[in-house]
Amino acid sequence: MIETRDLTKAYGDLYALKSLDLKLDKGDVFGFIGPNGAGKTTTMRILATLLNPTVGEAYVCGYSIYTKPKEIRRVIGYMPDFFGVYDDMKVSEYLEFFAAAYRIKGPQRKKICDEVLDLVDLTYKRDALVTSLSRGMTQRLGLARVLLHDPQVLLLDEPASGLDPRARIEIRGLLKELRKMGKTIMISSHILPELADICNKIGIIERGVMQVNAEVSQVMKQVRRAPVLHVGVVGDGTAAARLLESHPLVASVDPQDGRIVVTLHEGTEDYSELPSLLIGAGHKLTLFKEDELNLESAFMALTKGITA
Predict the structure, then answer these.
(1) Which of 70, 74, 146, 283 sits at 20 to 30 Å (Cα–Cα) from 269?
(2) Is this model's pTM higher than 0.85 or not?
(3) Can you give the three-state secondary structure of 29-45, one letter per residue?
(4) Assigned CATH for 2-85+147-218
């Protein structure tokens, strides 16, 4: 659905994007992560045919950005970080205006506008002025607008930017619905933990160069190959710590704040015998879980915060 080959955008000696190779299949939800100025928006603008690259090639749904820009615009929905709205229009009028621009006519136009309003949960605001909407509602209206022509590919640049916690949760739920509908989505965001819940693939870009491009689970493994366990037992955990420390799977044991932090040897996948070992020795477990590495930690470990 999306493919780039050696995609590069330079401004003199400054590279906003350098030799980007990317391939997304139908149904992929790709989280595009990077510091401000890393090249995320530049990439999306090129894919949306709003910006020409210096060198390289890009295809969207099989269409080249050079020879088929009109065809690409028919199959994508591009939502920039900040977009203009017509404040003196009602929500329904705003959507019907853009539906008319997509040449959706007659009763079909009203039907589609009603459907996307329902999808983004704004039906109750259909007669409200756009200027009266909150930031979160405006973002949902923006998503409704790009969905009017039922695009196959969505390019969403910071759709949750500046939203309060409730609005971010609502946007995340909407993105999950779009994923279920089979849309191919490229989404950039700085709210990293939420991307892990939405995306099946992520790309980490820094200074215009893609540093990581893989499945979310593979990225986590790349950052930390040694599992870390948190163990809690009733009473003094000294004996339990000693027992764990002597086990061949365990690399180190660190008692702290009433629990035991256990680091296993790199590559360990099955540690199911450890709780049985503790229970067999008479210890009552209050806690036994693996420390989950989140996307934010992975991002910090894999980047240096350098921009172009």
Answers:
(1) 283
(2) no
(3) EEEEECCCCCCHHHHHH
(4) 3.40.50.300
